[in-house]
Amino acid sequence: MSFLVRRILASLLLVWIVASIVFLAIHLVPGDPAELLLSAGGAAPDPVTVAELRDRLGLNLPLRTQYGHFLGGLLHGDLGTSLVDDYPVLDEIALRLPRTLELIVAATIIALAVALPTGTWAALHKGSAFDRIAAATAGLVLAVPVFVVGTLMVLALAQTLHLMPAGGYVPLAKAPGQHLLLLAMPAIAIAGGLSAVLFRMTRAAVLDVAGRDFVRTAWAKGLSPARVQIRHVLRNALSPVLTVLGLHMGALLGGTVLVEYVFNWPGLSTPLLAAVDARDYPMVVGIVLVTSTLFLVINLVMDLLYAVLDPRIGVS
Amino acid sequence: MNATRRAFLGATAALPFLHVPARAQARPGYLRYGLSAFPPNLLPWESTGASAGTVKTLIGRSLVGYDKTGTLAGEIASSWGLDPDGAWVFKLRQDVVFHNGEKLTAEDVRWTIDQIAGERSTAYMRSQFQTLARVETPDPYTVRLVTKERLATLPSWFANYNMSIAWHKSDPKAPVGCGPFRLVGQERGTSVILEASPNYFKPGLPKLKGITFIAYPDENLRNAALRSGDLDMIEYVPWQAMAAVEADPRLRLDEVQGAAFMDVLFNGTRPPFNDARVRRAVAHAVKREDIVQAAFFGRGRPLEGVPIIPGTPYYDEQLAHGWNYDPARARALLADAGYARGFSTKILATAQFGMHKDTAEIVQQYLAAIGIQGELMLPDWSTRVSLGTRGQYDIAIHGVAADNNDPDGLTVVMDTSLAPTHGRSFGLKTPRTTEAFARGRAEFDQSRRIEIYKDLQRAALEEVPLVGLAWRSQGFGMDRGVTGFTNMPGALSTSSGSQLEVTAFG
């Protein structure tokens, strides 16, 4: 069995384990979805009405029966429907996931655009004023939580200066300019921390590679500085940067919660939070399942990218 | 142009003076309204919160509603009253048309009541409508409701925003309404779009072409969106932001007092809170002004009695302070109950809402001052609801609004004979209060009702089905260009969405 097939099978097993743990855990947490739905806004629902709704939603069935239904649906590619409004979980994920991915990709592009040149420049000019200022800035950015950055951006750019909208979402096809405007602030807020991490990683990796024998040989051969620094130094320094990037992108799948909330970006995190609050079991399990799967896929893709960057690393 | 450091610094310094409102999405005649929560669903009869109620009251209408002063006013019903046999008779307007063009008749009212009172119903008003003996429709525009007992408050049932009348051939999962707006689109969790109904039965209304409701669960972002011009109007202006909205010359704050209140609930199934003297000790132990300041930034009022809305005929200034702050009396009551040395207890609240947590912390401090050592339990809201309904607490902090401004609207929070929920004290016995509520519902004479509800306040001050802590205000923030909207008084503030039919620009 090839490495790739074994990795995929192991990933599927992991996904099933994660889904089962989440399914059982969310059912064990106190809170009755029927009562919560009918208690919205502080209402005190009639217990008979709550019981009726529980029955209608199938919540009175034994847990193992509910788990069986869940697994049966999963085998058919059906994640069930929301307990709140009967909306298909897959449809919700299909609507929301691209927005979260767009946010992550935009943040990653911004972070890479900032971190790679500054990290490389700082390493090649180690000890310079730029290096010291960049290192201090990275430390500062890492120290400030992303929700603080987001809130300050809203306060300064939207509420005080009226330069940007406070948050929200417009589909790209409907208003491309407004869409990018609304994307900018949350993407920059996420990119801040990520770029600081990537800056440090790039700087350290470039410093490491720049001192290697093959780089010295390249200089001795009389290659141009740009060719040495980009082709020989930066390319070889990218492997650890990619490793860190892969891990962080995976983490961002679940880590955009606060940013999506602060900027009212209707990605996957917002319905996940709402579903946990409402004890909307199918929605929680469905979103976590898809997020875990994506995390594993990103890791697999990163493994394959190493091979592209460094041919000495075979897939096997 | 060459970019110089001086030019850059100059441009940066000028930034605060720039004003480029981000209003790209504004459309003439369409209101952009910031909801505090996305409606879980828009089923007309299920209780899914006040934000959902705002949207639902625009899609559907009922027999009666409230006008901007909080007085019952006809909607689908042109008149109503008691017939000689004691049944409630509603005469319907003959020009009401559903969004699908079908005329509304008494059959639609009967069908709606059948859906609500049905055995498998999950409607908010189900238990009330199950007390009807029968529904009669003597002609297409008359509905006669025969009650099992005398019932003075029946018309107000229809004014609840979970009570709209639907077309009798509707799919119960997607009932057709007859409100001023019709649903034209929604994105789950994000926005709901309404367009003016062309066949609304009130001439000249609605004044808006449409409303886009956008959910902003984060109150600070909702406020920022209003202040930056992304929204024309928001509900639940955060208390800490009300002064800034008032000070903003571009905005208007419409704030009412007494929209809701904070209270203490008790578990009466075991000592020490099964003893009314201990509950009264709690009532006298807390200085409410601190809650108003800390939890509501001064946007509220102390509540030292039964939560009867000030300004209504049932309000009594003396009774309203029956649980005044008096720590010496609180200690004496504890001693009288056999707890002179105090005791330890658990205070259930939630950390999910700041006002609940802040209130709980202040109550904890004041109880400690009379010898009651409270340990805070601050789970998430969902767990708080579950623990409350099951009586897994000693005392609990709660926040709630009455159904309406009539004292009968307090039944749902004060009548401890009703089945347990997280919003009422658990397992408590307060028979005089319960009996007073029943008498009030059965009495049609206004002056006698006033006396009954004063009796109720006296009974409740002794039996303590809950302890009132603080009224909290509720505010709508809007652009000054938005006109016609009125935040309705008292507990009806959450029903103010109906006012959007007379709201306009300019």
Provide a descriptive summary of the structure in words:
The complex is a heterodimer of chains A (316) and B (506). Chain A has 316 residues and is mainly alpha-helical. Chain A has a domain at 94-270: MetI-like (MetI-like fold), CATH 1.10.3720.10. Chain A has 13 helices and no strands. In chain A, 41% of the residues are buried. Chain B folds into three domains: 27-44 and 52-58 and 177-257 and 474-502, D-Maltodextrin-Binding Protein, domain 2 (3-Layer(aba) Sandwich), CATH 3.40.190; 60-157, Dipeptide-binding Protein, domain 1; 259-472, Dipeptide-binding Protein, domain 3 (Roll), CATH 3.10.105.10. In chain B, α8 (276-285) runs antiparallel to α10 and α14 (431-442) runs antiparallel to α15 (446-463). Chain B is globular and about 70 Å long. Chains A and B meet through α2, α3, α5, α7 and α8 of A and α2, α6, α12 and β16 of B.
Instruction: Estimate the global geometry of chain A from the Cα principal axes.
Output: globular
CATH class assignment of the largest domain in chain B: Alpha Beta
Number of domains of chain B: 3
* Helix/strand structural class of chain B: alpha+beta
Brief description of this entry?
The complex is a heterodimer of chains A (316) and B (506). Chain A is mainly α.
Key structural traits:
heterodimer; A: 316 residues; mainly alpha; MetI-like fold; B: 506 residues; alpha+beta; D-Maltodextrin-Binding Protein, domain 2; Dipeptide-binding Protein, domain 1; Dipeptide-binding Protein, domain 3; 3 domains; eleven-stranded mixed sheet; four-stranded antiparallel sheet; 15 helices; 19 strands; 28% helix
Helix-strand layout with pairing:
The complex is a heterodimer of chains A (316) and B (506).
Chain A: H1 3-28, H2 33-38, H3 47-56, H4 63-75, H5 89-124, H6 129-143, H7 146-160, H8 176-210, H9 213-220, H10 225-255, H11 257-262, H12 269-278, H13 281-309
Helix pairs in contact in A: 1-13, 5-6, 5-8, 5-10, 6-8, 7-8, 8-10, 9-10, 10-13, 12-13
Chain B: H1 5-14, E1 30-35, H2 50-59, E2 64-66, E3 72-74, E4 77-82, E5 88-92, H3 106-117, H4 126-129, E6 132-139, E7 142-147, H5 154-157, E8 181-187, E9 191-196, E10 210-215, H6 219-228, E11 233-234, H7 242-247, E12 251-266, H8 276-285, H9 288-296, E13 300-302, H10 327-336, E14 343-348, H11 354-369, E15 372-377, H12 381-389, E16 395-400, H13 411-414, H14 431-442, H15 446-463, E17 467-479, E18 482-483, E19 504-505
Parallel strand pairs in B: 1-10, 1-11, 14-15, 14-16
Antiparallel strand pairs in B: 2-3, 4-5, 5-7, 6-7, 8-9, 9-10, 11-17, 12-16, 12-17, 13-17, 18-19
